[in-house]
Amino acid sequence: MAAIPNSGQPKALIYAPTGRDALVAASLVNEAGATAVTAQDLPMFAALLDDDVAFGILTEEAVRSSDLKPIAAWISAQPSWSDLPFIVLTTRGGGPERNPAAARLSEVLANVTFLERPFHATSFISIARTALRGRLRQYQARAHLEALSEGERRLQGALAAGRLGAWELELFSMRLSASDTCKAIFGRGPNEEFTYPDLIASIHRDDRELVQTNLDWTIETGRDYSVEHRTIWPDGSLHWVEVHAQLYADRYGSAKKLVGVSSDATARKTTEENLRRLNESLEERVRERTGEVHAAHRSLLEEVAQREQAQEQLRHSQKMEAIGQLTGGVAHDFNNLLMVVLGNLELLGKHVTGDRKASRLVEGAVQGARRGAALTQRLLAFARRQDLQVKPVDLVELVSGMNDLLRRSVGSSVSIETRLLPGLQPALVDANQVELALLNLAVNARDAMPDGGVLSISLREEQVVGDAGDLDGGTYLVLSVTDNGSGMDAETLKKAVDPFFSTKELGKGTGLGLSMIHGLAVQLNGALRLTSKLGVGTTAELWLPATERRPEQPAETDLPLPQTASKLKILLVDDDTLIAMSSVEMLEDLGHEVVEANSGSQALELIRTGGHFDVMITDYSMPGMTGAQLAQAVRTIRPTLPIVLATGYADLPAGAEVDLPRLGKPYNQDQLAREIHKAMASDTDMPLKSAS
């Protein structure tokens, strides 16, 4: 049996045993841009069918009375993304509308086009190219499905790394689905059955009412489900479990299912119990020392209280740091996947401009991916990895300029009062992120005043002397947002900045607003301070470091892009194959010549061996050699080579500071073109020119 040649071109499989049909078809297939592979008989044709075949060509008379079961079996077994196109050459008058045998082929082959002979060569080539384009779109769909599958795998890895057990409970049937990690938290093996009755039976009898009450409350109100309870393992041992979940409803608003995670809280509860016993022991010792004055007693108690407070702060800090590390890693990887999706959709949109339905579908996918990118920016802000443009900013001018936007956002039922003192120092912040934070605080205040109220916004300067815990000594601008709404109790206030925690109804909030503002404040060496009282209102204060530097004057215009882009030879360095593929397509679509390297060492070898390049674009986060290390090495060989550093992170590790243009991920084609132009224009020793 002949093997299909690996020419790098799409392959067309031909079975035309009569006359010169096979030679003619092979010649026309090559002209259509594919490699022709001819089968000697029908069994060989069926055996050569695989996912790499772009389309098949058959003559109707050669298969009219043949056994087509092997071909039909392969077609029915295709993966979901695949619908292999076939071209059937018929004799004059032998089309499916007049020929039952041809109609039978239509039923067997499914995706088939009939072409009556004799035909013009251009007709055959046109049909072949249409089939080829359709198959290539199927390959693109396969690549996207594989990318999504990889994202799912990474998410499962993140859950495993955090020792979180995933579970899902269908409320109508009370059918429980649990991951292996979740089963292990309840003392079950991965192959053991674990049903909802098993779960209820495992809960300590003194905690069952608590669990049921919280479950009923979540179903009734739509609020998040959160509970800690004891569980008895099959071996009789006692353990603690911490459970968090969200309620999902159908389109009619009826509760449909709970989706959540569980974690083993036994070690933490054991530590807390030991601390409680230690405190009880200390208190007992204090009571026994009756000979000491009352003031002295009031003083091992204050010490105990301070120790408890310090321990609680330490636990909270460790929890937030762990969540931040997990969130940042997942968000960064997902950010890379979104860049691949957006880049390919942008290029795909250019090829379907004449197809209104396809254009609408592409635009819908782009909007969805952009919403995902916005969510990852919030996650990166919480993990302190968002790219910030920190500059001196006049906060009085910033707040005043947002007046119209704030009034539209809170609506006519809420009045806004501002107290902006003149002569305040500038703050060292990212203006866009502060605007987003202020808008988030205003919307939160509006939601806390459903019947209307007053929103007060003020600015003042404060001096911090020494170390204030969450703030270093110095001058700060305090942006204060106060409402007279529903407020929060002490327990809710403790969780207010936790990620995904929300007091809003299901579907009306992500629970990332305050956590994003908290992450922003920490990145800016400031702090977010919340005070609230139930039924009175809430005050959110954003403490931002002041600076004596004056705000920069805005540039009149950015560097214009060249009207006629010259062809450049570009070295693209990225270890992620999907990102590299997408970026190469965007660059080639701009008219440039691209050489791809998948590691820093490979790129360095290309430059050392005398390869000429007009500009180098490199990812920062790569194994073995980072983009910053690569740039430093390249500078010793080609000091004048323009270099652009692409990254989704803001804070590079110590020693990695390099003076390079930054291209934030995910980026689109226009942003890519603009950064290349800026890098070339800023290098006075290398004017814009065509690649040699």
UniProtKB/TrEMBL annotation:
GO molecular function, one term: phosphorelay sensor kinase activity
Catalytic activity line of the entry: ATP + protein L-histidine = ADP + protein N-phospho-L-histidine
Entry annotated with the keyword Aminoacyl-tRNA synthetase: no
Keywords: Kinase, Phosphoprotein, Transferase
Entry-annotated residues carrying 4-aspartylphosphate: 619
CDD domains in UniProt: HisKA, PAS, REC
EC number annotated for this UniProt entry: 2.7.13.3
Top EC class of this enzyme: transferase
Domain PAC residue range list: 225-277
Matches recorded under NCBIfam families: sensory_box
Protein name: histidine kinase
Provenance organism: Rhizobium sophoriradicis
